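Friendly challenge for the regulars: who can give me the structure tokens for this chain first? No prize, just bragging rights.
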Amino acid sequence: MREIQDGREKAIVPLAAIMAERKHLKDQLAETEVPYGRAYAAAEAAGWSAEELVRLGVEAPARRPKGRPRKHAPTTKTTVPGPSSGGEESNADASVQSG
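First reply, four minutes later:
Bragging rights claimed.
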């Protein structure tokens, strides 16, 4: 049994190292997204077409959704009710919890 566990431990060491390297590289790649998008937009603004850029091996950057970010709809209730003093709501809560 110990031999099996030793083999498992030896096999995981290189995998863990590669996983750490992959995470590091993914983080580095993520850091280039914004400047890459700006450089791509600047190339298009300078007159390069998307087709020309593709022929040069340039990939289009990930596009953000158009428009403003959505906000949550405003609630119609402007006040937050306080705790009840044992009225109907408390009885309803108790019956839900007990049954």
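The radius of gyration is 29 Å. The chain has a mean pLDDT of 82. Your move, everyone else.
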